[in-house]
Predict the 3D structure of the following.
Amino acid sequence: MAGGSLREKHKRLRAEQVLDAAEHLFSQKGYEATRIETIAEKASVAPATVYNYFATKPNLLMELALRHVHAALPERRSFIRNLPDDPVEGILSFERLLAEQAMRHLSRECWRVIMSAQYLEPDGRASRTGARLNTLIKRHYIRLIRTYQQRGRLDATVDPIVLSELIVGITTFQFGNFVARTDGTVEEMLGQGARNIRFILSQILREPAGAGAA
Amino acid sequence: MAGGSLREKHKRLRAEQVLDAAEHLFSQKGYEATRIETIAEKASVAPATVYNYFATKPNLLMELALRHVHAALPERRSFIRNLPDDPVEGILSFERLLAEQAMRHLSRECWRVIMSAQYLEPDGRASRTGARLNTLIKRHYIRLIRTYQQRGRLDATVDPIVLSELIVGITTFQFGNFVARTDGTVEEMLGQGARNIRFILSQILREPAGAGAA
DNA sequence: ATCGTCAACTCTATTTTTAGAGCAGAATAT
DNA sequence: ATATTCTGCTCTAAAAATAGAGTTGACGAT
Protein backbone atom coordinates (compact mmCIF):
# COMPACT_ATOMS: atom_id res chain seq x y z
CA MET A 1 0.00 0.00 0.00
CA ALA A 2 2.98 2.24 0.60
CA GLY A 3 4.18 2.89 -2.93
CA GLY A 4 7.76 3.35 -1.84
CA SER A 5 9.09 4.04 -5.30
CA LEU A 6 10.82 7.27 -6.07
CA ARG A 7 8.06 8.30 -8.45
CA GLU A 8 5.38 7.78 -5.81
CA LYS A 9 7.41 9.65 -3.25
CA HIS A 10 7.84 12.63 -5.54
CA LYS A 11 4.17 12.60 -6.37
CA ARG A 12 3.25 12.79 -2.72
CA LEU A 13 5.75 15.54 -2.15
CA ARG A 14 4.57 17.61 -5.08
CA ALA A 15 0.95 17.23 -4.13
CA GLU A 16 1.82 18.47 -0.66
CA GLN A 17 3.69 21.44 -2.10
CA VAL A 18 0.69 22.44 -4.15
CA LEU A 19 -1.70 21.96 -1.25
CA ASP A 20 0.53 23.98 1.03
CA ALA A 21 0.69 26.81 -1.46
CA ALA A 22 -3.06 26.71 -2.04
CA GLU A 23 -3.84 26.63 1.65
CA HIS A 24 -1.70 29.66 2.28
CA LEU A 25 -3.05 31.68 -0.63
CA PHE A 26 -6.69 30.74 -0.06
CA SER A 27 -6.58 31.83 3.55
CA GLN A 28 -4.63 34.95 2.69
CA LYS A 29 -6.38 36.29 -0.43
CA GLY A 30 -9.51 34.16 -0.61
CA TYR A 31 -10.45 31.35 -2.93
CA GLU A 32 -11.73 33.22 -5.97
CA ALA A 33 -9.03 35.83 -5.79
CA THR A 34 -6.12 33.42 -6.09
CA ARG A 35 -5.14 32.19 -9.51
CA ILE A 36 -3.97 28.69 -10.28
CA GLU A 37 -0.93 30.29 -11.86
CA THR A 38 -0.05 31.89 -8.53
CA ILE A 39 -0.48 28.64 -6.66
CA ALA A 40 1.79 26.92 -9.15
CA GLU A 41 4.41 29.60 -8.83
CA LYS A 42 4.41 29.47 -5.05
CA ALA A 43 4.64 25.68 -5.20
CA SER A 44 7.57 25.83 -7.66
CA VAL A 45 5.58 23.86 -10.17
CA ALA A 46 4.19 24.48 -13.63
CA PRO A 47 0.49 25.41 -13.83
CA ALA A 48 -0.09 22.35 -15.98
CA THR A 49 1.22 20.22 -13.16
CA VAL A 50 -1.41 21.56 -10.81
CA TYR A 51 -4.02 20.34 -13.28
CA ASN A 52 -2.24 17.01 -13.50
CA TYR A 53 -2.77 16.50 -9.82
CA PHE A 54 -6.06 18.27 -9.20
CA ALA A 55 -8.35 18.28 -12.18
CA THR A 56 -10.15 21.49 -11.29
CA LYS A 57 -9.83 24.35 -8.91
CA PRO A 58 -12.80 23.27 -6.76
CA ASN A 59 -11.25 19.84 -6.68
CA LEU A 60 -8.03 21.23 -5.36
CA LEU A 61 -9.96 22.89 -2.58
CA MET A 62 -11.79 19.65 -1.94
CA GLU A 63 -8.54 17.77 -1.46
CA LEU A 64 -7.40 20.53 0.84
CA ALA A 65 -10.49 19.98 2.95
CA LEU A 66 -9.83 16.26 2.98
CA ARG A 67 -6.29 16.85 4.14
CA HIS A 68 -7.52 19.00 7.00
CA VAL A 69 -10.04 16.40 8.04
CA HIS A 70 -7.26 13.88 8.12
CA ALA A 71 -4.87 16.17 9.94
CA ALA A 72 -7.45 16.88 12.62
CA LEU A 73 -8.24 13.22 13.08
CA PRO A 74 -6.03 12.56 16.14
CA GLU A 75 -7.66 15.42 17.96
CA ARG A 76 -11.11 13.95 17.36
CA ARG A 77 -9.95 10.51 18.32
CA SER A 78 -8.52 11.74 21.57
CA PHE A 79 -11.76 13.54 22.30
CA ILE A 80 -13.74 10.35 21.79
CA ARG A 81 -11.38 8.43 24.06
CA ASN A 82 -12.16 10.81 26.94
CA LEU A 83 -15.87 11.35 26.58
CA PRO A 84 -17.74 13.14 29.35
CA ASP A 85 -20.40 11.18 31.26
CA ASP A 86 -23.43 12.94 29.86
CA PRO A 87 -24.23 11.87 26.27
CA VAL A 88 -25.84 15.21 25.40
CA GLU A 89 -22.83 17.10 26.60
CA GLY A 90 -20.55 14.67 24.77
CA ILE A 91 -22.26 15.07 21.44
CA LEU A 92 -22.63 18.82 21.71
CA SER A 93 -18.98 19.21 22.62
CA PHE A 94 -18.05 17.01 19.71
CA GLU A 95 -20.14 19.22 17.45
CA ARG A 96 -18.28 22.20 18.75
CA LEU A 97 -14.97 20.53 18.10
CA LEU A 98 -15.95 19.70 14.53
CA ALA A 99 -17.10 23.25 13.87
CA GLU A 100 -13.96 24.67 15.36
CA GLN A 101 -11.79 22.36 13.27
CA ALA A 102 -13.72 23.21 10.13
CA MET A 103 -13.15 26.92 10.55
CA ARG A 104 -9.58 26.57 11.69
CA HIS A 105 -7.98 26.58 8.24
CA LEU A 106 -10.76 27.01 5.69
CA SER A 107 -12.82 30.16 5.36
CA ARG A 108 -16.56 30.25 4.85
CA GLU A 109 -15.95 31.13 1.23
CA CYS A 110 -13.96 27.94 0.83
CA TRP A 111 -16.62 25.85 2.49
CA ARG A 112 -19.23 27.34 0.21
CA VAL A 113 -17.28 26.13 -2.77
CA ILE A 114 -16.85 22.73 -1.20
CA MET A 115 -20.52 22.35 -0.40
CA SER A 116 -21.55 23.46 -3.86
CA ALA A 117 -19.09 21.26 -5.72
CA GLN A 118 -21.06 18.05 -5.28
CA TYR A 119 -24.09 19.69 -6.87
CA LEU A 120 -22.20 21.19 -9.77
CA GLU A 121 -20.58 17.94 -10.81
CA PRO A 122 -22.68 15.15 -9.33
CA ASP A 123 -20.49 12.29 -10.51
CA GLY A 124 -17.21 14.13 -10.45
CA ARG A 125 -14.32 13.62 -8.15
CA ALA A 126 -15.64 16.33 -5.87
CA SER A 127 -18.72 14.34 -5.00
CA ARG A 128 -16.71 11.28 -4.18
CA THR A 129 -14.32 13.27 -2.05
CA GLY A 130 -17.24 14.85 -0.25
CA ALA A 131 -18.66 11.42 0.41
CA ARG A 132 -15.35 10.26 1.86
CA LEU A 133 -15.31 13.30 4.05
CA ASN A 134 -18.75 12.47 5.40
CA THR A 135 -17.81 8.87 5.95
CA LEU A 136 -14.89 9.88 8.11
CA ILE A 137 -17.12 11.96 10.33
CA LYS A 138 -19.80 9.32 10.50
CA ARG A 139 -17.32 6.77 11.77
CA HIS A 140 -16.53 8.97 14.70
CA TYR A 141 -20.17 9.34 15.57
CA ILE A 142 -20.72 5.61 15.43
CA ARG A 143 -17.86 5.08 17.80
CA LEU A 144 -19.14 7.81 20.07
CA ILE A 145 -22.67 6.39 20.15
CA ARG A 146 -21.44 2.87 20.79
CA THR A 147 -19.44 4.09 23.72
CA TYR A 148 -22.47 5.65 25.36
CA GLN A 149 -24.50 2.54 24.68
CA GLN A 150 -21.87 0.40 26.37
CA ARG A 151 -21.95 2.73 29.33
CA GLY A 152 -25.68 2.27 29.50
CA ARG A 153 -26.41 5.94 28.89
CA LEU A 154 -28.07 5.42 25.51
CA ASP A 155 -30.76 2.94 24.46
CA ALA A 156 -28.83 -0.12 23.30
CA THR A 157 -31.47 -1.16 20.80
CA VAL A 158 -30.91 1.90 18.62
CA ASP A 159 -28.78 1.19 15.55
CA PRO A 160 -25.66 3.37 15.85
CA ILE A 161 -25.34 3.57 12.09
CA VAL A 162 -28.82 4.94 11.63
CA LEU A 163 -28.43 7.36 14.49
CA SER A 164 -25.07 8.61 13.27
CA GLU A 165 -26.44 9.15 9.79
CA LEU A 166 -29.25 11.15 11.26
CA ILE A 167 -26.94 13.34 13.29
CA VAL A 168 -24.42 13.85 10.53
CA GLY A 169 -27.22 14.66 8.14
CA ILE A 170 -28.84 17.31 10.25
CA THR A 171 -25.57 18.92 11.32
CA THR A 172 -24.23 18.94 7.78
CA PHE A 173 -27.43 20.66 6.71
CA GLN A 174 -26.97 23.27 9.38
CA PHE A 175 -23.33 23.74 8.60
CA GLY A 176 -24.32 24.29 4.99
CA ASN A 177 -26.80 26.93 6.00
CA PHE A 178 -24.21 28.54 8.18
CA VAL A 179 -21.55 28.91 5.52
CA ALA A 180 -24.10 29.84 2.87
CA ARG A 181 -24.64 33.23 4.48
CA THR A 182 -22.18 35.86 5.53
CA ASP A 183 -23.97 36.73 8.75
CA GLY A 184 -24.60 34.33 11.59
CA THR A 185 -22.04 33.03 14.04
CA VAL A 186 -20.73 29.62 14.87
CA GLU A 187 -22.41 29.92 18.25
CA GLU A 188 -25.78 30.48 16.67
CA MET A 189 -25.32 27.41 14.52
CA LEU A 190 -24.29 25.35 17.52
CA GLY A 191 -27.24 26.64 19.52
CA GLN A 192 -29.65 25.54 16.84
CA GLY A 193 -27.82 22.24 16.54
CA ALA A 194 -28.15 21.74 20.28
CA ARG A 195 -31.93 21.93 20.03
CA ASN A 196 -31.94 19.26 17.34
CA ILE A 197 -29.59 16.99 19.23
CA ARG A 198 -31.58 17.28 22.44
CA PHE A 199 -34.77 16.46 20.59
CA ILE A 200 -33.25 13.42 18.88
CA LEU A 201 -31.72 12.10 22.06
CA SER A 202 -34.67 12.80 24.35
CA GLN A 203 -36.31 9.45 23.63
CA ILE A 204 -33.23 7.25 23.94
CA LEU A 205 -31.39 8.75 26.88
CA ARG A 206 -30.83 6.49 29.90
CA GLU A 207 -30.01 7.54 33.46
CA PRO A 208 -26.60 6.64 34.91
CA ALA A 209 -26.55 3.23 36.61
CA GLY A 210 -25.68 4.49 40.09
CA ALA A 211 -28.41 7.19 40.13
CA GLY A 212 -31.86 7.13 41.72
CA ALA A 213 -30.63 6.47 45.22
CA ALA A 214 -30.11 9.61 47.30
CA MET B 1 22.53 35.53 -15.86
CA ALA B 2 19.99 34.33 -13.35
CA GLY B 3 18.16 31.66 -15.31
CA GLY B 4 14.94 32.29 -13.46
CA SER B 5 12.98 29.63 -15.30
CA LEU B 6 11.39 26.80 -13.42
CA ARG B 7 13.63 24.26 -15.11
CA GLU B 8 16.78 26.11 -14.08
CA LYS B 9 15.51 26.50 -10.56
CA HIS B 10 14.84 22.79 -10.22
CA LYS B 11 18.22 21.98 -11.66
CA ARG B 12 19.93 24.12 -9.07
CA LEU B 13 17.85 22.59 -6.31
CA ARG B 14 18.53 19.01 -7.38
CA ALA B 15 22.24 19.62 -7.72
CA GLU B 16 22.25 21.01 -4.19
CA GLN B 17 20.36 18.00 -2.91
CA VAL B 18 22.90 15.65 -4.42
CA LEU B 19 25.84 17.68 -3.14
CA ASP B 20 24.33 17.81 0.33
CA ALA B 21 23.84 14.06 0.39
CA ALA B 22 27.35 13.44 -0.93
CA GLU B 23 28.92 15.82 1.55
CA HIS B 24 27.21 14.11 4.44
CA LEU B 25 28.04 10.58 3.33
CA PHE B 26 31.63 11.34 2.34
CA SER B 27 32.40 12.84 5.72
CA GLN B 28 30.56 10.09 7.53
CA LYS B 29 31.67 6.93 5.73
CA GLY B 30 34.50 8.13 3.53
CA TYR B 31 34.69 8.69 -0.18
CA GLU B 32 35.43 5.20 -1.49
CA ALA B 33 33.01 3.57 0.90
CA THR B 34 29.95 5.49 -0.24
CA ARG B 35 28.14 4.29 -3.30
CA ILE B 36 26.57 6.54 -5.88
CA GLU B 37 23.37 4.59 -5.33
CA THR B 38 23.38 5.61 -1.68
CA ILE B 39 23.96 9.22 -2.50
CA ALA B 40 21.08 9.13 -4.95
CA GLU B 41 18.79 7.52 -2.41
CA LYS B 42 19.62 10.07 0.26
CA ALA B 43 19.07 12.86 -2.23
CA SER B 44 15.70 11.41 -3.29
CA VAL B 45 16.93 11.12 -6.84
CA ALA B 46 17.56 8.29 -9.28
CA PRO B 47 21.17 7.14 -9.65
CA ALA B 48 21.02 8.02 -13.33
CA THR B 49 20.21 11.57 -12.35
CA VAL B 50 23.40 11.84 -10.34
CA TYR B 51 25.28 10.95 -13.51
CA ASN B 52 23.27 13.47 -15.43
CA TYR B 53 24.54 16.20 -13.18
CA PHE B 54 28.01 14.97 -12.28
CA ALA B 55 29.59 12.84 -14.94
CA THR B 56 31.78 10.82 -12.60
CA LYS B 57 32.23 10.21 -8.93
CA PRO B 58 35.51 12.16 -8.72
CA ASN B 59 33.76 14.93 -10.56
CA LEU B 60 31.04 15.03 -7.98
CA LEU B 61 33.64 15.39 -5.29
CA MET B 62 35.32 18.11 -7.31
CA GLU B 63 32.12 20.12 -7.46
CA LEU B 64 31.73 19.60 -3.76
CA ALA B 65 35.16 21.12 -3.23
CA LEU B 66 34.25 24.02 -5.46
CA ARG B 67 31.12 24.62 -3.46
CA HIS B 68 33.10 24.73 -0.25
CA VAL B 69 35.59 27.13 -1.68
CA HIS B 70 32.71 29.36 -2.65
CA ALA B 71 30.96 28.99 0.68
CA ALA B 72 34.11 29.92 2.55
CA LEU B 73 34.69 32.95 0.36
CA PRO B 74 33.18 35.59 2.67
CA GLU B 75 35.40 34.45 5.49
CA ARG B 76 38.49 34.88 3.36
CA ARG B 77 37.32 38.22 2.11
CA SER B 78 36.73 39.49 5.59
CA PHE B 79 40.20 38.30 6.59
CA ILE B 80 41.75 40.25 3.74
CA ARG B 81 39.82 43.37 4.66
CA ASN B 82 41.38 43.33 8.16
CA LEU B 83 44.96 42.38 7.42
CA PRO B 84 47.53 42.63 10.21
CA ASP B 85 50.36 45.14 9.76
CA ASP B 86 53.14 42.65 9.21
CA PRO B 87 53.06 41.07 5.71
CA VAL B 88 54.68 37.83 6.87
CA GLU B 89 52.18 37.42 9.63
CA GLY B 90 49.38 38.28 7.22
CA ILE B 91 50.33 35.70 4.65
CA LEU B 92 51.05 32.99 7.20
CA SER B 93 47.72 33.58 8.90
CA PHE B 94 46.00 33.46 5.55
CA GLU B 95 47.73 30.15 4.86
CA ARG B 96 46.41 28.87 8.14
CA LEU B 97 42.92 30.02 7.30
CA LEU B 98 43.03 28.28 3.93
CA ALA B 99 44.27 25.04 5.48
CA GLU B 100 41.66 25.19 8.17
CA GLN B 101 38.91 25.81 5.63
CA ALA B 102 40.15 22.98 3.43
CA MET B 103 39.99 20.47 6.25
CA ARG B 104 36.74 21.77 7.65
CA HIS B 105 34.42 19.70 5.47
CA LEU B 106 36.59 17.50 3.27
CA SER B 107 38.77 14.71 4.61
CA ARG B 108 42.30 13.99 3.46
CA GLU B 109 40.94 11.03 1.52
CA CYS B 110 38.69 13.40 -0.40
CA TRP B 111 41.48 15.81 -1.11
CA ARG B 112 43.65 12.99 -2.39
CA VAL B 113 40.98 12.17 -4.94
CA ILE B 114 40.65 15.80 -5.87
CA MET B 115 44.38 16.29 -6.33
CA SER B 116 44.69 13.14 -8.39
CA ALA B 117 41.70 13.82 -10.63
CA GLN B 118 43.48 16.34 -12.81
CA TYR B 119 46.18 13.80 -13.59
CA LEU B 120 43.82 10.95 -14.31
CA GLU B 121 41.76 12.89 -16.81
CA PRO B 122 43.91 15.78 -18.00
CA ASP B 123 41.31 17.37 -20.23
CA GLY B 124 38.27 16.31 -18.27
CA ARG B 125 35.93 18.43 -16.31
CA ALA B 126 37.92 17.74 -13.17
CA SER B 127 40.97 19.55 -14.48
CA ARG B 128 38.96 22.59 -15.42
CA THR B 129 37.26 22.66 -12.07
CA GLY B 130 40.61 22.35 -10.34
CA ALA B 131 41.89 25.27 -12.38
CA ARG B 132 38.91 27.37 -11.35
CA LEU B 133 39.59 26.47 -7.78
CA ASN B 134 43.18 27.66 -8.05
CA THR B 135 42.12 30.84 -9.76
CA LEU B 136 39.82 31.70 -6.90
CA ILE B 137 42.62 31.35 -4.38
CA LYS B 138 45.08 33.24 -6.55
CA ARG B 139 42.75 36.23 -6.73
CA HIS B 140 42.78 36.49 -2.97
CA TYR B 141 46.57 36.48 -2.88
CA ILE B 142 46.77 39.16 -5.52
CA ARG B 143 44.47 41.33 -3.50
CA LEU B 144 46.43 40.63 -0.34
CA ILE B 145 49.77 41.44 -1.96
CA ARG B 146 48.44 44.65 -3.51
CA THR B 147 47.21 45.77 -0.12
CA TYR B 148 50.65 45.37 1.42
CA GLN B 149 52.24 47.13 -1.53
CA GLN B 150 49.89 50.06 -1.09
CA ARG B 151 50.80 50.18 2.58
CA GLY B 152 54.45 50.33 1.59
CA ARG B 153 55.29 47.08 3.34
CA LEU B 154 56.14 45.18 0.17
CA ASP B 155 58.32 46.16 -2.79
CA ALA B 156 55.94 47.91 -5.17
CA THR B 157 57.87 46.86 -8.27
CA VAL B 158 57.09 43.20 -7.79
CA ASP B 159 54.28 41.95 -10.02
CA PRO B 160 51.48 40.74 -7.71
CA ILE B 161 50.37 38.20 -10.28
CA VAL B 162 53.75 36.57 -10.50
CA LEU B 163 54.20 36.59 -6.76
CA SER B 164 50.75 35.14 -6.12
CA GLU B 165 51.38 32.37 -8.62
CA LEU B 166 54.59 31.56 -6.85
CA ILE B 167 52.95 31.38 -3.47
CA VAL B 168 49.91 29.43 -4.62
CA GLY B 169 52.17 27.04 -6.47
CA ILE B 170 54.42 26.26 -3.54
CA THR B 171 51.61 25.99 -1.03
CA THR B 172 49.53 23.81 -3.31
CA PHE B 173 52.53 21.55 -3.70
CA GLN B 174 52.89 21.31 0.05
CA PHE B 175 49.20 20.77 0.56
CA GLY B 176 49.40 17.95 -1.96
CA ASN B 177 52.27 16.37 -0.05
CA PHE B 178 50.35 16.76 3.15
CA VAL B 179 47.20 14.99 2.00
CA ALA B 180 49.18 12.37 0.11
CA ARG B 181 50.33 10.78 3.35
CA THR B 182 48.35 9.67 6.34
CA ASP B 183 50.86 10.90 8.87
CA GLY B 184 51.93 14.49 9.29
CA THR B 185 49.87 17.27 10.82
CA VAL B 186 48.53 20.53 9.51
CA GLU B 187 50.91 22.30 11.83
CA GLU B 188 53.90 20.61 10.28
CA MET B 189 52.74 21.59 6.85
CA LEU B 190 52.24 25.18 7.95
CA GLY B 191 55.65 25.21 9.60
CA GLN B 192 57.33 24.15 6.42
CA GLY B 193 55.22 26.64 4.49
CA ALA B 194 56.32 29.38 6.83
CA ARG B 195 59.97 28.77 5.93
CA ASN B 196 59.15 29.07 2.25
CA ILE B 197 57.11 32.20 2.68
CA ARG B 198 59.79 33.89 4.77
CA PHE B 199 62.42 33.06 2.18
CA ILE B 200 60.33 34.38 -0.67
CA LEU B 201 59.44 37.57 1.14
CA SER B 202 62.87 38.25 2.63
CA GLN B 203 64.03 40.21 -0.41
CA ILE B 204 60.95 42.33 -0.93
CA LEU B 205 59.93 43.25 2.59
CA ARG B 206 59.86 46.96 3.48
CA GLU B 207 59.93 48.51 6.93
CA PRO B 208 56.87 50.41 8.16
CA ALA B 209 56.90 54.09 7.22
CA GLY B 210 56.95 55.43 10.77
CA ALA B 211 59.83 53.17 11.89
CA GLY B 212 63.53 53.96 12.26
CA ALA B 213 63.04 56.85 14.69
CA ALA B 214 63.23 55.79 18.34
C1' DA C 1 43.85 -19.58 -13.14
C1' DT C 2 38.81 -19.11 -12.50
C1' DC C 3 34.80 -17.82 -10.64
C1' DG C 4 31.81 -14.72 -8.29
C1' DT C 5 30.92 -10.22 -6.47
C1' DC C 6 30.56 -5.47 -6.31
C1' DA C 7 30.24 -0.83 -7.70
C1' DA C 8 30.87 2.56 -11.30
C1' DC C 9 28.91 3.66 -15.30
C1' DT C 10 25.92 3.22 -19.83
C1' DC C 11 21.77 2.69 -22.47
C1' DT C 12 16.86 2.61 -23.60
C1' DA C 13 12.01 2.82 -22.88
C1' DT C 14 8.57 5.00 -20.13
C1' DT C 15 6.64 8.50 -17.23
C1' DT C 16 6.39 13.06 -15.74
C1' DT C 17 7.12 17.90 -16.04
C1' DT C 18 7.61 22.05 -18.34
C1' DA C 19 6.96 25.69 -21.86
C1' DG C 20 3.96 27.86 -24.44
C1' DA C 21 0.18 28.57 -27.54
C1' DG C 22 -4.54 28.80 -27.46
C1' DC C 23 -9.81 28.22 -26.39
C1' DA C 24 -14.16 29.33 -23.71
C1' DG C 25 -16.75 32.05 -21.00
C1' DA C 26 -17.56 35.74 -17.67
C1' DA C 27 -16.84 40.43 -16.37
C1' DT C 28 -15.66 45.17 -17.58
C1' DA C 29 -15.05 49.03 -20.24
C1' DT C 30 -16.29 51.79 -24.30
C1' DA D 1 -23.58 46.08 -28.82
C1' DT D 2 -18.48 45.51 -29.21
C1' DA D 3 -14.10 45.00 -27.83
C1' DT D 4 -10.87 43.90 -24.28
C1' DT D 5 -9.20 41.44 -20.51
C1' DC D 6 -8.78 37.94 -17.36
C1' DT D 7 -8.77 33.30 -15.69
C1' DG D 8 -9.79 28.54 -15.73
C1' DC D 9 -8.56 24.98 -18.49
C1' DT D 10 -6.74 22.11 -22.73
C1' DC D 11 -3.31 20.51 -25.82
C1' DT D 12 1.30 19.47 -27.87
C1' DA D 13 6.17 19.32 -28.30
C1' DA D 14 10.37 19.27 -25.90
C1' DA D 15 13.12 18.42 -21.76
C1' DA D 16 14.11 15.84 -17.82
C1' DA D 17 13.81 12.02 -14.49
C1' DT D 18 12.99 7.20 -13.41
C1' DA D 19 13.18 2.19 -13.83
C1' DG D 20 15.71 -1.35 -14.93
C1' DA D 21 18.75 -4.21 -17.52
C1' DG D 22 23.36 -4.54 -18.97
C1' DT D 23 28.61 -3.68 -19.42
C1' DT D 24 33.13 -3.16 -17.52
C1' DG D 25 36.96 -3.56 -14.59
C1' DA D 26 38.82 -4.36 -10.04
C1' DC D 27 39.30 -7.40 -6.29
C1' DG D 28 39.02 -11.55 -3.37
C1' DA D 29 38.16 -16.39 -2.50
C1' DT D 30 38.68 -20.94 -4.03
